[in-house]
Every structure is written in structure tokens, then in C-alpha cells.
Amino acid sequence: MVHPLRDKAAVSGIGETAYTRGTSKSGLALQLEASLRALDDAGIDPRDVDGVIPYFPGGAIAEDFIANLGLKDLTLSAFIPMGGATCVAAIQMAAMAVTTGVCKHVLISVGRTGYSGQRVSTRLQQFPVFAQANEFEAPIGMFAPAQLYAQGARRHMELYGTTARQMAEVAVVTRQHAILNGNVVMNKPLTVEDHHASRMISDPFRLFDCSLESDGGAAVVISATERAKDLKKPLVTIAGTAEGHPDSPASIAQRPDILDFGLVKSAPRAFAMAGVGPKDIDVAEIYDCFTFTVIRQLEILGFCKTGEGGPFVMDGRIALGGELPINTHGGLLSQGHVVGLNHVIELTRQLRREAGKAQVKDAELGLVTGYGDMGDGSIAILKRAA
Q1: β pairing state of 51-54 and 105-113
Q2: Which residues lie closer than 8 Å to 150 by C-beta, 6 or more apart?
Q3: How far is CA 38 from CA 41, 45, 106, in A?
Q4: Of 16, 67, 160, 375, which sits 20 to 30 A from 292 (CA to CA)?
Q5: Residue 373: what pLDDT?
Q6: Tens of pLDDT along 360-384?
Q7: What's the CA gap between 350 and 356, in Å, rounded?
Q8: Helices 291-300/145-160 angle, 10° precision
């Protein structure tokens, strides 16, 4: 039986600002700038948008979009507090809204001053999930994501022999891809030696294992496929989408297996909805808050077995021209950190054949993941329409 959401919604518009380290603009201003670019990309009048899902916590609410964009009849507004899994999870909500007729066009947006505004040490406390982390992890001095997620990386290294060299490969390849993209924060080549020489942040994570703190905005528009067919860009449909939450979602210390992310639950659902498997994927945009999370997600997604993620990323396999090109825009490690909505934008460009020097030849099917809030996992599988 074909899932009722399969290919019924589409990414109709994409937009982003410059990614920088330093801005005088507010998070709201960055969201609005990106939103207008996404609406222009789709050829949609802002007055036709009737759903908004701004990033939480991002400093914007529905009324900001009504006041600044002139929205006339908003029928859906929502926050999804899932950290780095938020933006891809929002695709599922938007797809349901436009497929059921609740909305015509849903705007998903992020505006982030991660460099010029609040840094990660203060921003984390805005997330509801960290109330439990404060109970279990904080008393022993574990506050920052690098500290919290380093545990899983070290566990994987001890169990399966994963190495710093393999994590470095993710950083180096991602940087190679970023250099092909004009809109990036990090545009200088990175070597394995550079990675190994960078300072330790939280063992085993070094500086270049960690995603950027940067400024920027991104937005996408989700529309019903039947409406999107009449818009100005090549049609990219949402074949499958899902979100998942790990056991003991708010405390890694209380989790039965710290290597089980929410993606363990969501990935099978998304593949089933789309009617495809890992071998069908041409390009993948994997949430890369840390190099290790890419390695583990590749295992969970079924591109390799558990414990084989480290060897899998070697020998050019994840680079352009390889078996599975990933993060062809530079990702959070090298392009910029807008909570992964830039991953959705890049995958859409790949499937439209608009990715320039980083274009994956004949890309027809791709996936994008989100990861956040101690392991929540979201996924969307996008398809180039015939």
C-alpha cells in the first residue's frame, strides 16, 4: 500500500542569506531576508503563505511574519523544539498540512546569530530538553554539546576501532565541497594534519570535528505537489519523511544505548514511506554537528553496518564522484550553521541540477537528516519528479 503522504508535497522554494562570522542583523531580519528569497524562488506572493514554522528558539513568532511579510490568512503556526532535528522534522509537519488542505504554502525559516549573538554556552538553556540534562549531566560539569556527544564517539571508538583519522576524513571532504560553494564561512583547504593539530575540545573531538558558530538565515517553502507543478522551479517532491526520539531522550546518561539516536526509529519509517532503500540514494546531506555523528548516522541509515562507519567514509567514498557524496555544500562543519536547513536547500539544488561545481551527476533521489536535542532524529527523502 502506497503511503498517503508519498510525493504529495514538494519543496517549492528555497532561499538563504550570506553565511558569515559577524553581522549587525538580528535573527528575525535574517529569517525575513531568507524567506523573501525563498518566496521569490518559488514565484509565490507572500500573501499566499498560510503556514509558518519558524525555528525555536529563533526570536521570531507568527506575528512577525504577518507584520513584516503581509501574510493575510495564517492557518498554521508552530514551533518544533527538537534542536538540530527541528528543520527536517518541520518538513513532515508542513507536508501533512499542505496534503490535508490545512495550508496552501508553508514557510519554514531559520535566522541565527550564533557568532554575533548568543553563543552555544548560553543558548542551550533555552531548550526545554535541557531541564533533565541539568539534573543528570550538569552536576558533573557536562554542559556543552561537544561534551555530551563526545561520549558516544569514544564509545564507538572503543567498541569498533573507529579512529580520529576517520573522523578527520569527514571534516576534510566536507571542506573540499565547501570550497566549491561561494557562500561559505570556511573557504580554505583543510588537511588531515590540520585536523590532528587543532586543539582538543572534548576528547575525542578536536576543533575541526565541531560544527561552526556562524550567522545566517535560511528558508524553504513547502507546497502541495499539485500546486507546485504550476510554479517556476523544477519539481522536487517529498517521497518520505519521519521523526524519531531516542529512549531517555533528554539524558544521555540514562539511555540504554548511547549510540541509539532517534534516527534508529525514523529512518525505517521514511524509507518505507518513500518505497526505497539506502542503495537507491544518489546524494545525502547528513546533519554534521560533529564528524562522528555523520559516521554513526551512515550506519543507522543502512549505508553500512554498525561499526563499519569509520572505514566507510574513507577512500573517497563520501566525496563528489564517490559511492555516496555527502554534504556537498560544506555542511555545518564548513558552510555555516543554520540548524541544518541549509542541508535541505542543498539537496533541493542537487535534485534541481542547480548545484554548480558540486553537482552530483544525474541525481534523482536524495536524503537529508536532522539530529539534535541529545539524539532526536529526523529525515526527509526528496525526489526529482519525472
Answers
A1: parallel
A2: 202, 203, 204, 205
A3: 5, 11, 11
A4: 16
A5: 78
A6: 999 999 999 999 878 899 999 999 9
A7: 9
A8: 60
Residue 236 CA to residue 258 CA, distance in Å, equals: 35
Cβ 337 vs Cβ 185: under 8 Å? no
| Cα–Cα distance measured from residue 230 to residue 65, given in angstroms and rounded to the nearest whole number | 25
- Cβ neighbours of residue 101 under 8 Å, at least 6 residues apart? none
Secondary structure percentages of the chain, helix, strand, coil, to 5: 40, 20, 40
Domains defined along the chain, listed by start: 9-118+211-384 (3.40.47.10)
**What is the CB-side half-sphere exposure of residue 378 using CA atoms within 13 A?**
25
Residues 6+ apart with CB under 8 A from 386: none
Residue 319: the pLDDT is: 98
Q: Please list the alpha-helical segments (H only) found in 180-326.
A: 192-197, 225-228, 263-274, 291-300, 309-312
Please work out, in degrees rounded to the nearest 5, the angle formed at the alpha carbon of residue 62 by the alpha carbons of 56 and 67: 135
For residue 371, the Cα-to-chain-centroid distance in whole angstroms is: 7
Contact 289, 211 (CB under 8 A): yes
Quickly count: other Cβ atoms within 10 Å of residue 158's Cβ: 9
Please, which residues bridge with residue 384 across strands? 236
Distance (Å, whole) CA 51 – CA 97: 8
Quick: pLDDT tens for 2-13. 999 999 999 999
Give yes or no for a contact between 109 and 85, defined as CB atoms under 8 angstroms apart. Answer: no
